[in-house]
Amino acid sequence: MLGALAAIVLAMQAPAPVPGSVLPTAVVTIGKAIVQVEIASTPAQRAQGLSGRATICGAPLRQGCGEAQKGMLFVFQKPTQDGFWMKDMHFALDIIWVDSGGEVVTIAPNLSPETYPKSFYPRAPALMVLEVPAGFAAAYGIAIGDKVVVK
User: Fold this and answer.
1) Which of 4, 54, 70, 89 matches a 20 to 30 Å C-alpha distance to 114?
2) pLDDT computed for residue 69 by the predictor
C-alpha cells in the first residue's frame, strides 16, 4: 500500500502530460494499456470528477483521443467502498476500482449518462478508481486481479 501511495505522490509532482489540465497528472499502466490521467485527490476534485465536461480527452469522443488513452484517477486517503454515479456526464465510461495492493477489484463497463441517479459500488474496498472511455476494459482485456501501476 505504501508503494502505491508513494507512486501517486511522486506522480502528482510530475509535469502535466494532459494538455489543458489544471489537475495533477500521471501515467497509469493497466494490463497492456497506458493511460494519461488527471488525478482527483481532494474531496472537491473527486466530487466534480469528469461531470460537466464535453469529452474525456479535449477532442470530441467520436474523433478519439489520438494515440494516448485518457482518463481520470480518483485517489482516496484510505480504501473505501464509495459509490460513483454519472451525474452531469455527457459521455459513457468504464469505471475500474483498484485496491491498496494495486489490483483491479471491480469493473463497471459501458456506463451511460442515462444510468444517473443509480450509483455503482466496488465489490471490495478500493484506494483508487480509474474512469476511462466506455469500451476501454473490453478493448484491452482488463480483468479482475490485473495490476495497476501509477507513475
Assistant:
1) 70
2) 85
Residue type, 24: P
Distance CA 84, CA 59 (A): 24
**pTM of this structure:** 0.82
2-150 belongs to CATH 2.60.120.1140: yes
Q: Give the pLDDT confidence of 104-133 residue by residue, as tens digits.
A: 999 999 999 999 999 999 999 999 999 999
109's CB contacts (< 8 A; 6+ apart) are: 94, 134, 135, 137, 138
Q: Grid coordinates representing 4?
A: 502505491
> What residues contact residue 111 under an 8 Å CB cut-off, 6+ apart?
86, 92, 93, 94, 95, 120, 134
pLDDT, one tens digit per residue, over 12-26 is 444 334 455 588 999
Residues shown for the chain:
151
Helices (H) and strands (E) in the chain, counts: 3, 7
